[in-house]
Specification:
The complex is a heterodimer of chains A (283) and B (179). In chain A, 40% of the residues lie in helices and 24% in strands. The longest helix of chain A has 78 residues, at 44-121. Chain A has a domain at 125-281: Rod shape-determining protein MreC, domain 1 (Thrombin, subunit H). In chain A, a hairpin with a 5-residue loop joins strand 7 (198-203) and strand 8 (209-212). The radius of gyration of chain A is 48 Å and the shape is rod-shaped. Chain A has helices at residues 2-37, 44-121; strands at residues 125-133, 141-144, 157-159, 164-171, 176-180, 187-192, 198-203, 209-212, 225-228, 240-248, 257-262, 271-275. Chain A is α+β, with helices and mostly antiparallel strands and 283 residues long. Chain B has 179 residues and is mostly helical. Helix content of chain B is 73%, strand content 0%. Chain B has helices spanning 2-18, 33-44, 47-64, 71-89, 94-120, 130-162, 165-168. In chain B, helix 1 (2-18) runs parallel beside helix 3. The longest helix of chain B is centred in the C-terminal third of the chain and has 33 residues, at 130-162. The chains are: A alpha+beta (283), B mainly alpha (179). Chain A binds chain B through residues 131-143, 169, 177, 179-180, 182-185, 187, 202, 204-207, 266-269, and chain B through 17-19, 21-22, 24-27, 30, 32, 63-68, 114, 117, 123-127, 129, 132-133, 136.
Chain lengths: 283, 179
């Protein structure tokens, strides 16, 4: 009896399972058919499913992104040393170029001033470059790369765009020695531009001139401009020489003691112009 | 050969001094290399050889620098004679005083020459200012160490190479043709 009862219960459970499974499957198939064959609308069911699956997808995406990020960072770390070296080299090259460019700009400005002077002066000039400097403490001279074959003669004035530099002291075929205006043995006839008072400009060996033989009765002020007088035909008239920086009236003596700051910066001399003048003027 | 080597070295030092060590005409920190050579020659070579070496070097200096012709030969020879005289009379060991003496003699020689020039041609030369001249003397003292070592090295090399036995030794065996 008991055995029969067990068999019947087992059979009914199996039937129930079968019916449930089949019913569920048919229901899903029907839903699928309705969805596929229906009006293709993203309906409430879809939205509910999307809301349910969305957080999972979001979590998985963030994990995936983290993994990708770790992988990318690791690969970047492997190449960062090479990248650093490459960038450092590039930086060095850029710095070198920038340095060269700054030098070129400065040179360009100097040459432009020379060119402006050359064009405005209406005098034949010879461009020269300093190739050697006097190392002694007692004299001030430079050697330039132009000589008698280029037309350079003894006594010719040497200038830059800012003003007078000196005069040719001696010349060989291809080179010349220029006595700077700041040399102790240099003496140039000059005028105070405003008052037209005449004096003799002497070098001191330093970056300073001494203006001599100006009487105490003359009115000379700090800031007065000094230009070449042009007497004797050595220098052309009106070339800038410097600016009066100090005037001293001593109790003794007839003359003022005047210091003049050169118009030319002798510390940065590089390119010069030799003004071609008639040979008879100097010999 | 030693004479020629030192002449070439002296000329090279003059070139370096007037170009590389003189970035501007008013540059102060230009060591007078030629005077260090004067000092080395006074201490280490024969009297005549020193004179021969100093002649072209000082003449080139005269061309590159200054407006008083003969100033540098006078300066070099005065320094050379002074140092030789002092070395001959000095009772102390040479290595103790030779480098400071070069700088000291530089001061003395410059002072003497400036005094002479100031007497005969007062408008030609700059006035004596202590700081630059002492600074130059100090530079001479500083540069004397490496340059003296370099000169000694050159002297040894030149003497070693050209008085080496391989040039003068007698070769083994009969050196005349047999048939």
């Amino acid at each position: 009896m008991k055995k029969n009862t067990r068999r019947q219960r087992k059979g009914s459970i199996t039937t129930f399972r079968f019916v449930l499974f089949t019913g569920t499957a048919i229901t899903f198939v029907l839903i699928l058919l309705i969805v596929i064959l229906g009006d293709q609308q993203f309906g409430p069911v879809h939205k509910v499913i999307l809301e349910g699956v969305g957080p999972l997808q979001k979590t998985m995406a963030s994990i995936s992104n983290s993994l990708h990020s770790v992988k990318k960072n690791y690969i970047d770390l492997l190449t960062v040393r090479e990248e650093k070296e490459r960038l450092w080299q590039e930086l060095q090259e850029c710095r070198t170029k920038a340095y060269a460019n700054r030098g070129a700009v400065a040179l360009n400005a100097r040459l432009r001033k020379l060119l402006d002077f050359k064009e405005s002066s209406n005098q034949p000039t010879i461009t020269a470059q300093i190739i050697g400097k006097d190392p002694s403490l007692w004299f001030r001279s430079v050697i330039i790369d132009r000589g008698s074959s280029d037309g350079v003669r003894k006594g010719m004035p040497v200038v830059t765009g800012e003003g007078i530099v000196g005069q040719v002291y001696a010349s060989s075929t291809d080179y010349s020695k220029v006595l700077l205006a700041i040399a102790p043995s240099s003496a140039i006839d000059v005028l105070l531009q405003g008052s037209r008072i005449r004096g003799i400009l002497k070098g001191t060996g330093k970056n300073l001139y001494q203006l001599e033989y100006i009487l105490k009765t003359a009115e000379v002020f700090v800031g007065d401009r000094v230009v070449t007088a042009g007497y004797g035909g050595m220098f052309p008239t009106g070339l800038p020489v410097g600016i009066v920086s100090k005037v001293t009236r001593n109790r003794r003596g007839m003359f003022l003691e005047i210091e003049v700051v050169p118009a030319v910066d002798f510390r940065t001399l590089e390119n010069l112009l030799v003004i071609e003048r008639e040979k008879k003027n100097f010999e | 050969m030693l004479t020629l080597s030192f002449i070439l070295i002296g000329l090279f030092l003059v070139l370096v001094q007037t170009t590389l060590f003189m970035p501007s005409p008013l540059w102060l920190a230009a060591p007078d290399f030629y005077y260090i050579l004067v000092g080395y020659l006074a201490y280490n070579v024969t009297f005549l050889r020193g004179i021969v070496i100093l002649l072209p070097v000082s003449m080139v200096l005269d061309i590159y620098s200054g407006t008083v012709i003969g100033m540098y030969p006078a300066l070099c020879y005065l320094g050379y004679f002074l140092l030789r005289f002092m070395v001959a009379k000095m009772p102390v060991r040479k290595s103790l005083y030779q480098l400071p003496l070069v700088a000291l003699s530089y001061l003395m020689v410059n002072w003497i020459l400036l005094l002479i020039l100031d007497f005969f041609q007062p408008q030609v030369i700059a006035e004596w200012i202590w700081f630059p001249i002492l600074f130059r003397a100090f530079l001479i003292y500083i540069f004397s160490f490496p340059l003296f070592r370099f000169f000694t090295f050159v002297e040894k090399r030149v003497k070693g190479t050209f008085s080496s036995p391989r040039f003068t030794r007698s070769l083994p065996g009969n050196q005349f043709r047999q048939n």
